[in-house]
Specification:
Blueprint: H1 4-9, H2 16-22, E1 30-32, E2 38-40, H3 45-48, E3 55-61, H4 71-84, E4 89-93, H5 98-101, E5 110-111, E6 114-117, H6 119-123, H7 129-149, E7 156-161, E8 165-167, E9 177-179, E10 190-192, E11 194-196, H8 201-208, H9 212-221, E12 223-227, E13 232-234, H10 235-238, H11 241-248, E14 255-259, E15 264-267, H12 282-291, E16 294-298, H13 303-318, E17 324-329, H14 331-341, H15 348-367, E18 372-377, H16 384-396, E19 400-404, H17 406-409, H18 415-425, H19 442-454, E20 458-461, H20 463-473, E21 483-486, E22 506-515, E23 520-525, E24 544-546, E25 548-550
Parallel strand pairs: 3-16, 3-17, 4-15, 4-16, 8-11, 17-18, 18-19, 20-22, 21-23
Antiparallel strand pairs: 1-2, 2-14, 5-6, 6-14, 7-12, 9-10, 12-13, 14-15, 22-23, 24-25
Helix pairs in contact: 4-18, 7-8, 7-11, 9-11, 14-15, 15-16
Length: about 550
């Protein structure tokens, strides 16, 4: 089969107005960006806000291999299959970051016959949302340094400035830097660094805001550092909330695109699932739920990261929990987890040990009382015996199972999965069981997250992390925020080498950030970094243009 980009370039893409019509969106609410993309204006909300919510379907995954297990591809193919079966469907996804696009994973628009288009635009600059978020974030950083240079009226403690700069490419050399190595006129010297934009609080704020006024409220609350008395200094005190609002005014509007088969898709917001909260925007999800009967969305990486954050951070604000959860797995990922527990990874018996990782994710979703189906994303070298074994293991846990072949067959390859999802999404279900109460202490929240979801024996803290958490515990507002865990995506633990279902380990919290604007607490476990590096041979070496772009996955 042709590579992804050639398949996408050979599709006759429809106009945004034609796609919008499928959802009943009047053309007056569209703001065109080129020929095949449009933003949806916020003035649509009063016209749809009283519509009943559609069914919400969350796609998550097993702890993945480095190549990923096809979660986005499955989300797109499932949406196409539901549309193929005659259901009014909308897909809601995150925006790709240029970091992975030019790094190791490539783009994030699906693959094969299950893609969103125009894939080159979406994977690259798209509508400029991530650029706007980067610029707004860095303006705030520049104003902090400028304020101190011009007298430091707010009495910043230069050693307690927490607001780093960001950029949307992988660059390990910028993780830890010293600024101002010249004349006095260049500012003051201090240690700082860069994060990738997808890990920034500004990205999280765009994704967590419910409307423009909520965006303003959240920007005002951003804590950029602390004064000499250890009091937080906010964006509001610096007086530039309005400027950030201007830069972000268009980035707050969801982007409407389409799949290869013409299924409407909202792509908006791009936080990573390992170092950020990993969910598309609240606004895009709200719109989709009011415009469609079935909404397919995804959350970053494995269910221990993406699904947990979706359920414990996003859903309380969205006011809606999934009607069905799809856990994407592959034989290759199960074999990888099997190899960690046995001396072989090719026998059927070894697959049973590898299934332990998938089993843990299934049980976690069952613990939330969520109807769940395992979607096995199949490859040509998967044997019928291997597939049957995984199906039987799922059956023993009382969970539905379906093969997904959307990569090679598009919608028709996802019909069985779609029928299974329809069955469980429309069935009677138990009441959602949250992981923790907002009023649990931050230490209680972390203990429940680590022991229940990850299977850890407990949590350990560096003195720095414990000190910050103890301070948070005494704050009546911040203490109620949910936890956003930054850790490796490859393991249930915070050590990427501990595959399968590890036991007798602790989650080690080394640092904590108060995301006052996003209204969650980010805890950093193990050796996770918020600015990725490039591999020895990045995808950037393959990408080129000669009339058409080539090399982009």
């Amino acid at each position: 089969m042709e590579c992804d980009i050639k398949i996408a370039q050979n599709i006759q893409t429809k106009r945004p107005s034609d796609i919008a019509e499928k959802l009943g969106i009047d053309g007056k609410y569209l703001e065109p960006y080129g020929n095949y993309t449009a933003k949806i204006h916020s003035s649509i909300w009063p016209t749809i806000s009283n519509n009943p919510n559609g069914k919400l379907i969350l796609v998550t995954a097993i702890n993945p291999t480095s190549a990923g297990e096809g979660k986005t591809t499955t989300s797109i193919g499932l949406g196409d299959a539901l549309n193929h079966l005659g259901h009014k469907t909308c897909i809601a996804l995150r925006e790709p970051s240029l970091g992975p696009c030019f790094g190791i994973k490539g783009g994030a628009t699906g693959g094969g016959r299950a893609q969103v288009v125009p894939m080159e635009d979406i994977n690259l600059h798209f509508t400029g949302d991530i650029h706007a978020i980067t610029t707004a974030h860095n303006l705030l950083a520049a104003v902090v340094d400028n304020h101190i240079y011009h007298g430091n009226e707010l009495q910043f403690d230069p050693q307690k400035i927490t607001w780093k700069r960001v950029m949307d490419v992988n660059d390990r050399a910028l993780r830890n830097i010293t600024v101002r190595r010249g004349n006095r006129a260049d500012g003051f010297a201090r240690e700082t660094g860069f994060d990738i934009t997808a890990a920034s609080e500004t990205m999280a704020i765009i994704c967590m805001s419910t409307d423009v006024e909520d965006l303003r409220r959240r920007i005002s609350k951003i804590i950029v550092g602390y004064d000499i008395n250890d009091n937080g200094i906010t964006c509001q005190k610096l007086g530039i909330t309005g400027s950030l609002m201007v830069l972000l005014k268009d980035a707050l509007k969801p982007n409407l695109v389409q799949t290869l088969e013409g299924t409407p898709t909202l792509i908006h917001g791009g936080p990573f699932g390992n170092v950020a909260h990993g969910c598309n925007s609240i606004i895009a999800s709200k719109y989709a739920l009011k415009l469609a009967d079935y909404v397919v969305t995804e959350a970053g990486f494995g269910a221990d990261l993406g699904a947990e954050k979706f359920l414990d951070i996003k859903c309380p604000l969205l006011g809606k929990y999934p009607d069905a959860v799809v856990i994407v797995a592959t034989i290759r990922a199960i074999k990888l987890h099997a190899a960690a527990a046995t001396s072989e990874n090719g026998s059927l018996d070894s697959l049973i040990s590898g299934f332990s990782n998938l089993r843990k994710h299934i049980k976690n979703m069952q613990r939330y009382n969520l109807p769940t189906v395992v979607a096995l994303n199949i490859f040509s070298d998967d044997s019928s015996e291997e597939i049957e074994l995984i199906e039987n293991c799922c059956g023993e846990l009382g969970v539905k199972f379906a093969i997904s072949d959307v990569w090679s067959r598009g919608a028709v390859g996802g019909v069985k999965l779609a029928e299974t999802v329809l069955e469980i999404a429309n069935s009677n279900r138990a009441e959602f069981n949250p992981l923790y109460d907002p009023h649990d202490s931050v230490f209680e929240k972390l203990h429940k997250l680590a022991t229940i979801i990850y299977g850890a024996s407990g949590v350990s803290y560096t003195p720095k992390a414990r000190g910050i958490l103890e301070k948070i515990s005494n704050d009546p507002e911040v203490g109620t925020y949910p936890i956003c865990m930054a850790k490796t995506q490859y393991s249930l633990s915070d050590d990427k080498k501990l595959l399968g279902e590890p036991h007798d380990f602790e989650i080690s919290i080394r640092d904590v950030s108060i995301m006052a604007g996003a209204e969650f607490i980010t805890t950093y476990a193990g050796d996770i970094v918020t600015m990725p590096g490039l591999p020895k041979h990045p995808v950037a070496e393959l990408i080129d243009i000669n009339e058409k772009i080539t090399g982009l996955y």
